[in-house]
UniProtKB/TrEMBL annotation:
Residue ranges crossing the lipid bilayer per the database entry: 25-47, 59-77, 97-118
Keyword Membrane: yes
Protein name as annotated: DUF4233 domain-containing protein
Pfam families: DUF4233
Length: 137
């Protein structure tokens, strides 16, 4: 039985965590998108010096991609945020057509996002098993 100041146990028999574990995960996702946007923007001068340089269309692609990453930081609380984040990674890998360096950065960050998905699944499993510190008595 639960009291007004104490949450009721969930169907699995474990009480919900006292602090929202997803809040910190959303913060990590936002931080990763900002870091990725910075790296992508810093790639413009590097790519411009490699080979034949970089076209105006390629710069526009990179700027739009970085802008979407920065805007993506604000939607991490939405149910579709992870899908949006992964779509940005696909767009980064597709940037290989703009310049191979952009695609290589896309592969690197895609690997990081795969690890983030692993962490997301791990958090969900721990919640379901009642293993988070806020769920223990």
């Amino acid at each position: 039985m639960s009291t007004p100041d104490q949450p009721a146990p969930e169907p699995g028999g474990f009480k919900p965590p006292a602090k929202d574990p997803w809040k910190s995960f959303r913060g990590v996702c936002s931080g990763m998108l900002i870091l990725e946007a910075i790296v992508v923007l810093l790639a413009i001068p590097a790519v411009a010096k490699l080979g034949d340089g970089i076209s105006g269309g390629a710069v526009a692609y990179i700027l739009v991609l970085a802008g979407l990453m920065i805007l993506g930081c604000g939607v991490q609380g939405r149910s579709w945020a992870i899908g949006f984040d992964l779509a940005l990674q696909v767009a980064m890998i597709a940037g290989w057509l703009v310049h191979p360096v952009v695609g290589a950065l896309g592969l690197l960050f895609a690997a990081v996002w795969v690890y983030m998905l692993y962490l997301r699944r791990d958090i969900q499993e721990r919640i379901e098993q009642g293993l988070l510190p806020g769920q223990r008595d």
